[in-house]
Design brief:
It is built from nine helices and 13 strands. The chain has about 450 residues and is α+β, with helices and mostly antiparallel strands. It has a six-stranded antiparallel β-barrel with strand order 2-9-12-11-10-13. It has a four-stranded antiparallel sheet with strand order 6-5-3-8. Strand 10 and strand 11 form a beta hairpin. It is rod-shaped, with a radius of gyration of 63 Å.
């Protein structure tokens, strides 16, 4: 620049006229060339007489200019060359999946703990509570009333059962006493009949002896025929009396055997006395009361279980804790304590750091060369550690997934979009929004 200024400040008589410069450009160029070379020759002659330090500074200045020029040429020449040879994205940003927590019930929001913006939450942390003070508890109240009614009826059933068992026990004792008394009575009757049989047998023997004597005396004429007939009749009566007594003995033995087995035979009553019949009726009543009491206990136990289930359901409908299913920072808080929300309304969004991805947009030429599963490397613009991954989605110009923290539509320089998934620790650090570029592995396409 200094040489050109000096060339411009030379004597105007040495330069061509304006008309000549317009008509003879070549002559003007030769004049400028002579002036420049004349200045260089003057500088060289001055340099030969200049001191050594000044010449050294002049050489250093010229070398620095040359080095700076080479660096500029290398930088501005290498970047376009690298862009031509590499398959890389136009824009890229570190992204992550979003988990939207919604209200399971309708109610009023209450804060479970203080959560600041971008606070890192652990999985299972209770962030908010939704309280519904107007939840329906009609069924729970009905179940509790039914259980209370059965619990009030149970002591009465238990008392009736105890009374029936006591009465049945008393009647059983009476029936046992009656059976034992009847057995003793029959045994005594049998003994009496046996005595009668023995007496009848004695009378029979006596009558038989008298008939034999009268028969022998009747042959000699000492006893009349009438007397013999009387004695014969008495013998027949004694024999029939003995036979009748033996029959009564057999009947008494039959009654005794039946009484010992629990059945009673007689003319004035049936096979079971009234005490036994009443004892059986009371036993049946006690069985019915015991069954009613068991049914009541079963219903009480069932109602108790139903009440527990209904209490859990009522608790779920009246209050719900909003817990984070994944570990990550809060991306967006969409509600505040004291606000009334409806069931299904989104409350907050949490970054799923385990699902970190890189979203990028590329040119059409690069997009047509990519395939699912291709290796890719994300190079941050801040010079951080590169993140490796693989191509998992090629959405092109179509709409991108909506559950990402940064919508891929925000990358608007090119319409073709690519998603790269990575499992590197740097990606799991959840530095969402970190910009850079994605370099894709080159591969030859098959014809």
């Amino acid at each position: 620049m200094m040489d050109r200024s000096r060339a411009a400040s030379v004597d105007p008589t040495s330069t061509p006229s304006p008309n000549e410069s317009k008509t003879d450009a070549k002559g003007l160029q030769e004049a400028l060339h002579e002036q420049l070379f004349a200045h260089d020759e003057a500088g060289q002659s001055d340099g030969q007489t200049a001191p050594e330090p000044e010449r050294r500074r002049l050489y250093l200045r010229r070398g620095a200019k040359i080095a700076i020029g080479l660096v500029i040429i290398a930088v501005f020449g290498w970047l376009p060359l690298r862009a031509i040879w590499e398959h890389s994205s136009v824009e890229a940003v570190l992204n992550s999946r979003l988990v939207t927590l919604r209200a399971p019930i309708g109610g009023r929001v209450a804060a479970a703990q203080r959560v600041s913006d971008q606070a890192k939450l652990e999985a299972g942390t209770v962030v908010l509570r939704v309280v519904n003070s107007r939840s329906d508890r009609t069924r729970l109240d009905d179940l509790r009333r039914q259980k209370a009614r059965l619990e009030n009826e149970r002591p009465s059933l238990a008392a009736k059962l105890a009374s029936a068992k006591a009465a049945q026990k008393d009647l059983a004792r009476q029936a046992t006493q009656f059976r034992e008394g009847r057995v003793l009575q029959l045994e005594a009757r049998i003994a009496e009949i046996q005595t009668s049989i023995e007496a009848a047998a004695a009378r029979r023997d006596e009558a038989s002896a008298a008939v034999e004597r009268a028969s022998s005396l009747a042959k000699s004429g000492n006893v009349s025929t009438v007397e013999l007939a009387r004695l014969t009749r008495e013998l027949s009566v004694s024999q029939q009396t003995e036979l009748g007594a033996r029959k009564r003995l057999d009947a008494a033995k039959v009654e005794l055997a039946a009484a010992q087995n629990g059945s009673f035979l007689g003319d004035s009553y049936n096979d079971r006395p009234s005490s036994v019949q009443r004892e059986e009726e009371m036993r049946q009543r006690a069985g019915d009361l015991e069954a009613d009491l068991a049914r009541t206990d079963t219903e009480i136990a069932w109602l108790a279980n139903e009440i527990i289930v209904e209490e859990v359901r009522f608790a779920d409908l009246s209050e719900a804790n909003i817990t984070t299913p994944v570990a990550g920072p809060v991306w967006e808080m969409m509600t505040s304590p004291g606000e009334d929300v409806q069931a299904g309304q989104p409350l907050l969004k949490v970054l799923d750091c385990s699902g970190a991805v890189i979203t990028a947009n590329v040119t059409e030429n690069v997009y047509n060369r990519l395939q699912l599963g291709d290796h890719a490397t994300f190079e941050p613009n801040d010079g951080g550690e590169p993140i490796s991954g693989r191509v998992v989605n090629l959405t092109g110009a179509a709409g991108a997934p909506a559950n990402l923290a940064i919508n891929p539509d925000a990358l608007s320089k090119e319409p073709y979009r690519v998603t790269v998934a990575s499992r590197d620790a740097a990606a799991r650090a959840c530095t969402v929004g970190r910009t850079g570029r994605v370099v894709f592995a080159r591969h030859e396409t098959t014809p």
